[in-house]
């Protein structure tokens, strides 16, 4: 049996609405950097964190181009976490709630992710050393 630590993160908030989602991505990134295996169950608006249709934007109010604005997208942040996992030896199992994906039309996401339902969340919880839920308000 492996002695490697495994954490589960349960995310609910959509991208760009509050600091909760970016805080969650920072914590996931820290865990991956430490070589900890990570499960992520994204539901409700959090399924849009990895939506492939996200695009960085300019800021016409301040006259800055896309490059000057350098506005990060959560999908790119998640891709960077997956790249870091390859270096640190961490395993990431990211599940998108299928119902939530369908409701929000957010079916385009990284191929490393998969869709499933609450049964998978229960498996994550049963097989983790700890679980962090980052809820909406």
Describe this structure in words.
The protein starts with 5 loop residues before the first strand and ends with a strand. Strand 3 (about 90-95), helix 4 and strand 4 (about 115) form a beta-alpha-beta unit. The longest helix is centred in the first third of the chain and has 15 residues, at about 20-35. Helix 1 (about 20-35) packs parallel to helix 3 (about 75-90). It is α/β, with parallel strands linked by helices. It contains 5 helices and 5 strands. Helices cover about 35% and strands about 20% of the residues. The chain has a 5-stranded parallel β-sheet, sandwiched between helices. It has one domain (about 5-50, about 70-135): Hypothetical Protein Ychn, Chain: A, CATH 3.40.1260.
For the structure shown, list the relevant keywords.
single chain, Hypothetical Protein Ychn, Chain: A, 5 strands, 5 helices, 19% strand, 5-stranded parallel β-sheet, 137 residues, alpha/beta
Residues in β-strands, percent: 15-25%
The shape, in one word, is globular
> Which segments are poorly predicted (pLDDT under 50) over 5 or more consecutive residues?
none
Secondary-structure-derived class: alpha/beta
Q: Strand tally, please?
A: 5
Cα(first) to Cα(last) distance is 38 Å
Counting structural domains, the number is 1
- The number of helices is 5
- Rg over alpha carbons: 15 Å
Mean pLDDT: 93
User: Which architecture does the CATH hierarchy give at level 2?
Assistant: 3-Layer(aba) Sandwich
Q: What is the third-level CATH name, the topology? A: Hypothetical Protein Ychn, Chain: A
Oligomeric state, counting identical vs distinct chains = single chain
CATH-defined superfamily: DsrEFH-like
């Amino acid at each position: 049996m492996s002695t490697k630590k495994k954490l589960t993160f349960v995310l609910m908030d959509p991208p760009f609405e509050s600091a909760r989602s970016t805080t969650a991505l920072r914590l996931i990134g820290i865990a991956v950097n430490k070589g900890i295996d990570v499960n992520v169950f994204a539901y409700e608006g959090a399924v849009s964190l990895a939506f492939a249709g996200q695009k960085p934007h300019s800021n016409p109010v301040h006259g800055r181009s896309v490059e000057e604005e350098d506005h990060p997208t959560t999908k790119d942040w998640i891709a960077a976490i997956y790249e870091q996992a390859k270096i640190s030896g961490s395993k990431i199992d990211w599940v998108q709630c299928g119902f939530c994906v369908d409701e929000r039309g957010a079916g385009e996401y990284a191929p490393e992710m998969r869709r499933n339902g609450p049964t998978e969340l229960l498996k994550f919880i049963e097989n983790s050393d700890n679980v962090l839920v980052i809820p909406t308000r």
